[in-house]
Structures are given as C-alpha cells and as structure tokens.
Amino acid sequence: MSTSQRFGSDAVECAEAVLVEQYPRLVRLAYLTLPDSLGRHTRVLLAHKAVQRALPRTGTPAGPAPAEDGTDEPDRHLALLRFRVLRAALAPAGPAGTTWARPIRPPVPPFVWGLRLWPPAGGIDEAAPTLGGAPAPVRAAFVLLRLDDLAPDETVGLLGRAGAADPAAAVRDALALPADEELLRALRRPEFDASVVSARPTDLLRRRRTARACWAALATLALTLTALSVHGSRPGPDVRPAAGPAASGALDPARLRRVPPGAWSDTARVDFTAWPARGGRTGDRGLLARALGTWAAPGTTPLSTTPGTTGEPPAGPPQLLYAGELDGRAVVVLRDGDRIVRYGESATGSRGGRTLDVTRTDDAGVTTAAALTLSRAADGASARYLLAPWIAAATARDLLRADDTGEALAVAADGVTAPAAVPPAGASCTSWPVLELTSSTRIVEKHSFVLTDLGALSPVHLTYTPLPDGPAAAPARQPREATGPEARAAWARQACRLGELRQGGYRAVNIWDFAAALLPDGAGRAVWSCTRASGWAGPGDVIVRLRLEAGPPRDVARARSTAACGRFGRHLLAGHRWRSPAGRWYLLAAGSRQVTAITATGAVRAGTAERTLAAPWPGPDGAVSLMGTLAGGGTVTALDGAGGGRD
Predict the structure, then answer these.
(1) pLDDT at residue 97 is higher than 60
(2) Range with the poorest average pLDDT among 20-34, 416-430, 490-504
(3) Is residue 221 classed as helix, strand or coil in its secondary structure?
(4) Which of 10, 21, 30, 152 has the CB geometry, 3.0–4.6 Å to 50, for a possible disulfide?
(5) pTM above 0.85, yes or no
C-alpha cells in the first residue's frame, strides 16, 4: 500500500484477522518497548491500548509502511500493524527513549478498578537484566531482531518510519546486547505472553475506608436532599471490583481440569499433563475451594517456593492431580503450566496448619514427572509419594550400598506409597535412601531409574555417565540410569554429598566420569568425575572431583550457573595439586574425551599429548595455568582457571 491509498472495508477486515492472530506478539513488542519506569501495570494497559488502536478504520490513509512487491497480503498487514504499534509505543518517549515527554493519558475503557495487572513472571524477569535501562528504540530493535526475526536493514527502516531518531544506532546497540538461547527461549515461553495478565487487589483497607466515607457522604447528601425536596434521591449503584483470577474461573473448583485415568497410555507426551485426578477427596468442593483460595491469597499461610518459581495464582483453571487425606492431613496437588502446587491442611479443615508449596517442572518427562512428595512424617524420617500412573513398581534401597537390592515399596491403588525413609538432614550419613522406580511396559520396556528426596516437592533424578570408550572421534556417551554396577559404585562414593543440594530447586544430578589414569609412586588408579546438578530453569552447578582408590573423593573445582558437564558443555579440563603416599607433590590434570594434549605453565611447566597429565610440583606454592588442545581444533582452559587445587 502506498501512502496515497486508503483502507477499504475488506482491507480492514483482513488487518483485523491478522491482529487477532498476532495479538500476543504485537503486545510483547509494545510492552518491551515502553519504558521500565512506568511499572508493569501501566505498561500492560498501554501496550494493549497501542495494539488495539493499531487497527485502522475504513477510509484512513494506509500510512508510511510500504511492503515489498510480492509480499503476501497477511504479511503486508502485519508489517503495517507492527509499524502502527511501534509508532504508538515510541511516540511518548523523549530523546533518550527512556523518559516521557508528555503526561500519560489514561487508557481507554474497559477501566480497571481496584486491581494491579502484570504479565506472569518468567521471561520478563529473565529479560530485565538485558533490556533494563536500554533506550526504547534499542528495546524495540531487540524484539524485532531477536524475537520477530526481522533483518537488520528492515528493522532500521521500520524504526525510522516509526519515529526513532537514530534507527541505525538502535539496531547496532540491540545486536550488541547479550542474548543467549536461554533468554530467547524464556521470552518465547507461554508465561511471557503479555496478553495474559495476573491480577492483584490494591490496598484493600484504604479502599474499604474510602468506600465507607463515600457511602457516608452519599447518605448524608441523600438525607439533606430528602429534607429539602419532596423527591428523594437514591445513591448510585454498588460497583465492585473484579475478582482477579476468579473472573476467569481459575478459582472455581467445578472448572478444575481433570484428565481421564488412561490418558497416559495413549499420548506421546508422558509428563504431568497425563496425570489423572486421584485421591479420595477429588469431589470435595470445600477442600478444593480452600486450596484455590489460599493459593490466590495466601495471607498468613506459609508459602514455600523453589528458586526461580513464582507463587502467583493461576490465570486459568489449573489441573487437579490429587486430593486426599494422609496421616491426619488433607492434601491437594494442582498443576498450572510449568508449576506444581501442593496445599495442605489439618483433616478437620481448620485454618491453622495450612501450608502451600510451589515448584517448577519445566520440560518434565517420564522420569522427572514420575513422583511428587505428598507428605512428610513429623520427625522428618519418612515421606509418602504420589507416583505417576505409568509407574509399575517401586523399590526402596540405600544408595550408599552398591550391592543393595532394595525392598519393594507398597503402593496404593491411587498411586500413594507407603511411608518411605528419606535421606538424613543432619551431618551424619550412615545411609542414603532412594526410590528405584520401574516404568510400565506400555510405554517402555525394562526401564528403571532412581529418584532421591532433597526436601523439595519434586524428587531429583539421579543418572551416571561412564568413562569414554575409544578415540576422541567416537560418539559421546549419554547419561544412563543409576541402576547398573558402575553407576551404583560411583554413587556409593558420593551419595552423602547430595545433602549439599537440599532445597536448591534441582531436577537431576549426573555423575560424569570423564577421565581415569594411574597415579605416580604406585598410588593406584584415580577417576576424574564431574557432578552436575541441573536446575529446572536450565543452568546448573558443577563440582569436579578426584576419586582415589581409598578415601573420600576430593573436590578439585566448582562452578555455578554453568553449562559445563552438560549436553552443551562437553569440553572439560581440570587440575589438582596432589601429594603422593611417598610425600612428593604432583600436578594432576585431566581432560574430557576430545582433549588431545595438555600444557601447564607457571609454577609447573609440563606438557603431554594425552588426556591426563602427572608432573612433579617443584615448590610448595605457586599458581599453575592449564590449557587443553581439542581434537577438532581450538582449546579449553581449566574449569577454575588454574590447576592449583589444594590437597
């Protein structure tokens, strides 16, 4: 469309269809372009206002947003709508794009009385460190380039037509912003759909006092007018604010989503979405209403959330997983997207003793969606679990004993286990109880896996990756279940260290044996391993350890919030200062499968064309730098930047 053309009725209808289809993307563009200083409530309202006003009226000019010849009609309308949204989001900004040049006008109806609105937590919280403080044109360019996949020259043209002062500079600055895949995936996840909002009431006490004062004034005015006139005056209607989540039915027990019992065996998505509603009180509307109401307004109820999890109430009706009574407590378990919520109360329903726990379950699967902790004994020594419907058998065994065959754990018809011992919370560690679960043959044959309780709502999946086999060109080994002899032996040496991960919000822990070598002075064989605790959000914490033939493993290096030792961090190098039984000091170093040579500089100057290195350490102190050469080219440095780990 050229600027001389005007919109006909057909063009407006087509633009409306495109706007409805692309509404979340357009709101996201407006929301992220608007200044942070406005607050989430105001940004949400103004973003929706900008998108809804982007729809042109019949007879209005097409505007300066030409499309390339040959572009499909929907694409031309999307380009035009994107231009109009961007122009509205950028127009109120000052020269720097971060301050407002004129007072904010209130949004058009519908008005929001007594509520604060914002997008659900998730992508926006992760994007804040990257986009916070950047000028509005730069934020807009970031969205257009990284999320809407526009070309740089196309973005420059669009920003220029929308009124940006220096669009080329905005594009350059946006391309310079850090944007890893985790951030972009977070911004694309459903929980960062700015067209879906959460609501909370404002100051209820202040509003109540204000309302009472208004009614008192109205009553006085009515009495006065009645005394002065023969015609009475009636006060205005009682206008009450919306009820937040209840307005969408999220707090209505009758609207809870329930999955049929056999759905898990007829779906390719075997996770929490396939769990049926189980328990003896799934029809107790009073219990379910109290659980939903407490979730929406916890008040004095203790709220526990795992790291990176929000306790906000659901925007729509959640899925009911369980409602029943255990050991004098009523328990309700609900699923809302990537969150699981457990509500507990005394069996009598009294307000005292209510609890609310929320955890993340991003991308859960057959193993990580296999069990949830329903209740714990008062002494903390045992717990009951709700098992997934695809679990055929459960065994309780001791991870510290590699040869322990375990004992069968009784499971009721509704999937609730008998009380099972849990790992000790104190310093003593004489045993480490775990669950070994076996999947039904209806989804996989001969599949067993191990879960451990680290105090959270969701048990942690334990795996093991054995030593590499063959040359560097051989395919990398993948994590295996911690059920074979090698895995049991490795975990028996390190089980007690799992206590350091309590309440950390982890989904899985893997031990990766990445190298082995004979030690100097006849000290036997040592195995290098990397233990990775992966969080639900993606990053994980790692510890590199050296396992000797005798004694506990020795910590060599550690890192937090890293991809190392995971699927996307397969190249690893570590070093350690070690004293042999003969009293001599050595630098020990080892690399992962594709490391073909190691070079040490500094206090120790040595090299090897192998994946492991053992070199005399001449002095008592000094720093060492390690560099590894990779088979495919490139280098890798030691995880902690040096090889100076102390014995």
Answers:
(1) no
(2) 20-34
(3) helix
(4) 30
(5) no
* Tokens describing residue 635: 């280098």
- Pick from 50, 46, 128: which is nearest to 87 by CA? 50
pLDDT at position 289 is 93
435 vs 396: CA distance, rounded Å: 5
Q: Is 50 exceeded by the pLDDT of residue 73?
A: yes
- 391-398 vs 407-408, strand pairing mode: antiparallel
Give 196's pLDDT tier (boundaries 50, 70, 90).
low
Burial class (CB in 10 A: 0-12, 13-18, 19+), 619: exposed
Percent of the chain exceeding pLDDT 70 equals 76
SS3 content of the chain, % helix, strand, coil (to 5): 30, 25, 45
Report how far apart, in Å, the C-alpha atoms of 523 and of each of 92, 122, 459, 643 are.
73, 51, 38, 20
Task: Please state, in angstroms and rounded to a whole number, the distance separating the CA atoms of residues 587 and 617.
Answer: 6
Judged by DSSP in three states, 339 sits in: strand
Burial 21-51 (b: 16+ CB within 10 A, else e): ebbebbbbbbbbbbbbebebbbbbbbbbbbb
Please state, in angstroms and rounded to a whole number, the distance separating the CA atoms of residues 626 and 639.
Answer: 9
Residues 144, 450: Cα–Cα separation, whole Å: 44
Rounded Cα–Cα distance for residues 599 and 91 (Å) = 58
Q: Which residues contact 74 (CB under 8 A, 6 or more apart)?
A: 14, 17, 18
First to last CA, the chain: 74
Q: What is the mean pLDDT of residues 484-498?
A: 95
Q: Which amino acid is at 219?
A: A
Consecutive H or E run containing 448: strand 448-452
* Burial label, 624 (beta-carbon count in 10 A; 0-12, 13-18, 19+): buried
What is the spatial distance between Cα 107 and Cα 199, in angstroms, rounded to a whole number?
A: 17
- In this predicted structure, what is the pLDDT of residue 287? 95
Mean pLDDT of 52-66: 68
Buried b (16+ CB within 10 A) or exposed e, 495-518: bbbbbebeebbbbbbbbbbbbbbe
Distances (CA, A) of 67 to 17, 57, 447: 18, 19, 55
Specify whether the CB–CB gap between 641 and 602 falls below 8 A: no
Residue 218 confidence (pLDDT): 63
On the question of pLDDT at 533 being above 90, the answer is yes
In the Cβ-directed half-sphere of 634, how many Cα atoms lie within 13 Å? 6
pLDDT, tens only, 217-235: 665 555 555 444 433 333 3
- Would you say residue 111 has pLDDT above 70? no
Give the three-class secondary structure for 123.
helix
- Residue 603 reports pLDDT greater than 50: yes
Is 296's pLDDT higher than 60? Answer: yes
- Return the pLDDT at 310: 86
Q: How far is CA 311 from the centre of its chain?
A: 13
The DSSP secondary-structure symbol of 36 reads G
Residue bearing tokens 């005292």: 352
Q: Give the CA distances from residue 10 to residues 29, 62, 261, 275, in Å, rounded to whole numbers and listed in that order.
A: 26, 13, 48, 46
Helices of type H across 438-534? 485-494
